[in-house]
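OP here, attaching both records as promised.
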Amino acid sequence: GTFPHGIDILTAADYFAVGNRVNCYLTISVYIAGFPEYTQPMIDHLVDMKINHWDSVIRELATKALHNITPQAPEYMANVVLPRLLPLSVGSDLHTRHGAILACAEITHALCKLAQENNRSVTYYFSEKSLEGLKQIHQELCSRQLYRGLGGELMRPAVCTLIEKLSLSKMPFRGDPVIGGWQWLINDSLRHLTLVSSAARQHIKESAVSALAALCNEFYINERGEADPALQDELVTQYVAELQNAEEMIRCGFSRALGALPRFLLKGRLQQVLEGLRKVTVISPEDVSFAESRRDALIAIAKVCQTVGVKGDGSQEEYVCRDNVDQIYGTLLTGVTDYTTDSRGDVGGWVREAAMSSLMEVTLLLVQKEAELLSANVCKQIMCWLAQQAAEKIDKFRAHAGSVFLTLLHFDHPPVPHIPHREELERIFPRSEAETLNWNAAAEAFPRITRLLGLPAFRYHVLLGLSVSVGGLTETTLRYSAQSLFDYMKRIQADGSALESFCGTLLRVFEDNLRNERVSVPLLTMLDQMLANGCFDMFTEQENHPFPVKLFSLCKEEIRRSKDIRKLRSSIGVFCGLIQFQGDMREKVFFQLFLLLCHPFPVVRKTTASQLYETLLTFGEVLEPAVTEQVMAILSDTNWEAELPVVRERRNCLCDLMKVPRPQLVPK
């Protein structure tokens, strides 16, 4: 009995419950403050000790706790706490100022919600002095230049949060000059993103965009539900113009800002906004590394579509409709092909991830409103690109693609139309396993995704994705993707037409990606493994089968004038694998390998000799018995890293023994 409600409190605030900081501040504190003896002391503790804490996370949690506790002591909050916080919000100590601004925002919002729930005026709990104090915070910080420097990294998102909460609270500030000041701060914060640390950038951007949405919805709409034409023109034109700013972060900020605009500001300006965002997604030589701005533009396009809604026969200036749906999908599908890399790695992955999410959001929007706007061709492209991403090597993006793929496949309110091979897909990916399938795990993902090779609509894209995985460098991805591919190849060995069809698609993938290092190098590695695993044994007995002939010409073209060691070494394995095929091509393969035996790079010469030796051991019948021993001796005993004239003489001996024309030096 020493502590009031001690047993109840100990039960709620046990050792494990208080171990979670968020739970402690947002749930347990509210429960304990519910006992009258603890309400005021809890509030005082948060205000006196926690909103000025050195850790910003604690400060933010403390202000949210104050929001949650406000309904238990609204009068105390309004008459004692808020007047105490207002001077602190413009004080000299940075941490206290930051915490006090956020606390003012949270308490004000909670008081206004409480007043509205009780059918009272939103200003019921506020004195004139408090309302004036809330308006003065931004002006005071601005006049003292407290938005600059490192302090500004804390002040900007804090005041943007204040703007958002005051707007959501429906404060009676319509027409007040403070609105212009708030709009200036939001715009300036979006332009300021290049000047802040990367850690603060995302926080400032999200706070400013949230504040903009709330500000517009509350203060820029008239009684008829429309925007002031002059204000709309100024805001939209200014934001679209900033999308072509030379600074990437400014493009990011204004892309997201356009995505947050309410419908009444987009009405009549939809094409201007969509075209501005589309231009941000286009890769040009000057902004090839601007992956973050392309990502944010794609996210914004989906947000804009969701905001304006769908109306098939509506105006393209107001709705997603027949006249603009193809343009929207064209932009989003282009994003899935972004494979830009720089010093940060595969930055195009951010763009592809955003494009996949946006495709899903726009597609589900159309399906639920007017499914006839979704054409069979577009639906096929979406599913095929998702299947390709789900077969690729980076776990995070593969998992995201797989999740989006299954969401679209199993959506049934109503079902997405025109999905190719729907019945087969539902057998491969049953609805019961959609939640449990771990796309991050190569051992689970690849055995499923390779089954799509048997579906003609998906074969090309899945094979393209698999090429990068099977020929990649990550051991687990390589092992499981290769094993799944070889298992599939074993299943179709007896089916001539299936194998021919597969090989035709494989050659098309190679031809479409000639000199595209991202695909062609791992593709050569994959082909080397497939030839070594006997995936094309059915064709080895056929004279001059078109598959090896075409494959040889593509490999030859791929390495022409190449100085890429990895590509050259991968091609050697393919050329050696082609020796097993019958016909006139075999002499050309040997000629190509003999060229590589005198390559300017010693490592290429050595690798060629080593792999050719192993291949001839395996397929000894390709040599005449009389010369076999000499050929093998030259390949094994020669120092292929010696000077070129010495190496060339030994190579020419091989040519003579095997009756292959000697390569001739081309005069420069």
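Record two, same layout:
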Amino acid sequence: RTTMKSLRFISAEAFVSNAEFARKSLGAVAHDLFPLLFKASYLLEQGEVIHDLVENWPLFDFNMGKLLGATLDYKEDLSHRTCSVCLESCLTGLRDYVLNQSSPYMKKLKVVDLTGIKDVEVQFCKCKKTMGRWARTQLLSKLCSELLVYLQQAQCNPGTFEISINVLIDLFVTERNYELVVQALLKKCSCPLKICCVAFRSDNLTLQKFFYIIKLTDPSLLRKLEIVHNVHLEMEHLEMLFNSIHFPLLMSLTLPARTFNVRRFTATDEQMLTNVGEKMGEMTQLTELSMSFSILTGRIQKLLSPLKTPLKMLDVSNCSLNHADMAFLANSFHANHLEALDLSGHDIAELYPSTFFKLLSHCSSVLRSLTLEDCNIQDTHVNMLILGLSPCQKLQEFKFIGNPLSSQALKHIFTFLCELPMLQNVEFPVPRDCYPIGITYPIDDASVCRFDHQKYERVAEELNLILLQANREDVKASTPLFGSYDAAVQETNNELGAYLIKSFKETLEKFTTSFNKMS
């Protein structure tokens, strides 16, 4: 599929394709053509031209999302191209913008917004090398530190110290880049490039380090906070976090697995949960909440009822919800506003079918994404499921991996899914009849790949044929056995893997020591 280009864009491509000529000629280019040339250079991966465009940027702002997004001259959105050559050229160009000795009166740039860059699984750039969120965090922090060292050592134009540019970025911090990011944030006041953290993700970090760095980010600006893998945050720490730091603009909150565990609750814990709910209620912008793999049985109301703003996204997968929890969700004011809902790991068809379908009917007019993985949905539930999904005409994504459904049932579901006009992505399970007889659900990781692959391929072809015959080539159907693509995990999986091995080794050593003492 080719996207139409205007004559202006074709001319811009021709201009930047000769890097040497383009770089020499930038001084004669009208300021309003810089955005056009930037997008053309990005498409052609002309790193040197990108660097010089940014180094000489003549406008007040530089917004990556807008520059690479759909424009009148070229409608294709390039913001999902995290091309390493292009992004490194951008960031080094930004550093050199500060160091460029041209008159500081010509320097108008005040805001650089890097938050519009989207990390996706499939890259279309020629170099095939990506620069993910972690690497962008690393490089920007490194450049800020280097810039300060250079300014302190070199004889710079006095006007250079007056340059102040806010760089909006989604930071991603792990143990490996922690020190570098901390140094950049500590020296923010002295640095012409000022890191402004809009979203913060933390993986593989001790609680002490997490608490320290989160305060450095200026939480009053934070819109999204993700505390994910290997950050051992429990409810008492969450209460401490909310008591010591205010997040007035926070719109999205992701908490790590096992933050809550009501099975161990004491009277003190109940009060703590009430306090956490009240603190979340003070976050008037909060519309997205993810609390997967916590045990929240019977406590959803206590946690969510203080919220004053309706949630648009809720992930309570594998949270051991009971009928009272589901009834609260179905009857709450959140239900009519939910655009994304994840109830994976709950036996919805057996435990609370009517309440679940009530919830589904309430959010059907706005629901865009529904995830029901490992929900024990069987062939006998398919008609009921179709009935519940029928009003969800805005549904774009439906994920139901890990359910014991036969090939025939999947064909029935796919025939129905063709009727949902906005649907773009479906993640479906390996049919039950592809696994050995007697397989039990949920299937453990060791057995998940032990199915008849040839039979699965035949069924997958038949399912895609159903889409094709209904003229729904726009729908992507897949079976990601180990979960959907996560750009952040993909980028840092080596570090996470090393951490898990280290943790396992430490546990084994403790066990051996205890065993020896007993002996």
